[in-house]
Amino acid sequence: MAISGWHPRYRTGIESIDAQHEEIFLALARLKSAVRMGGEGEDVDELLGYFARITERHFETEEAFLRLHNYPEFEAHAKEHVAARANFAKIRERYRDDRNALVETIVTFVNDWLKHHICEGDFKYVQFLQARQENHN
Ligand SMILES: [Fe+2]
Ligand SMILES: [Fe+2]
């Protein structure tokens, strides 16, 4: 299971957003080691709950920020957040049903989602904001 942590390539340049992304990466690392320790370490279900909470807070921050800047693709971006929320809830439910079968899948899924979220979804609004700033200079 190849999972990398925070990397400068994920930096958006927006301080509050970067801090939250980093926090999410850290939560993912904790989740990963809990899964590896197979019940000896932190509680996976609790970590999934924690992950959902900080991710939710992050979505709220991003959505408020994008509204503030009248981001034209706001709806599409918010829709991605809705889908992610639903997926996390589903994952947690499945984990509660079967504590053995899904753990590797969970971590891989969350890892892939996080990279997609930042690299595709978030970088799109960063580009938009940067372009607008350049036009104003
Ligand atoms: Fe984000
Ligand atoms: Fe986002």
Fold and architecture overview:
This protein has one domain (16-136): Up-down Bundle (Four Helix Bundle (Hemerythrin (Met), subunit A)), CATH 1.20.120. Helix content is 77%, strand content 0%. The chain has helices at residues 15-36, 44-68, 74-97, 103-136. It is elongated and about 55 Å long. The model has no long low-confidence stretch (mean pLDDT 86). It binds fe (ii) ion (2 copies). One fe (ii) ion binds next to α1, α2 and α4.
Number of domains: 1
What order do the SSEs take from the amino end to the carboxyl end, as H and E? Answer: HHHH
Q: Which fold name corresponds to the CATH topology?
A: Four Helix Bundle (Hemerythrin (Met), subunit A)
The CATH homologous superfamily is termed Hemerythrin-like
Percentage of residues assigned to helices: over 70%
Rounded Rg: 16 Å
The overall strand count is 0
Low-confidence segments = none
What is the CATH architecture term?
Up-down Bundle
Kindly report how far apart the N and C termini lie: 45 Å
- The class by helix and strand makeup works out as mainly alpha
**Count of alpha/pi helices:** 4
Main beta sheet strand tally, sense and closure: none
Chain-averaged pLDDT: 86
Q: What portion of residues belong to β-strands?
A: under 5%
What is the CATH C level class, in words?
Mainly Alpha
User: What is the subunit arrangement here?
Assistant: single chain
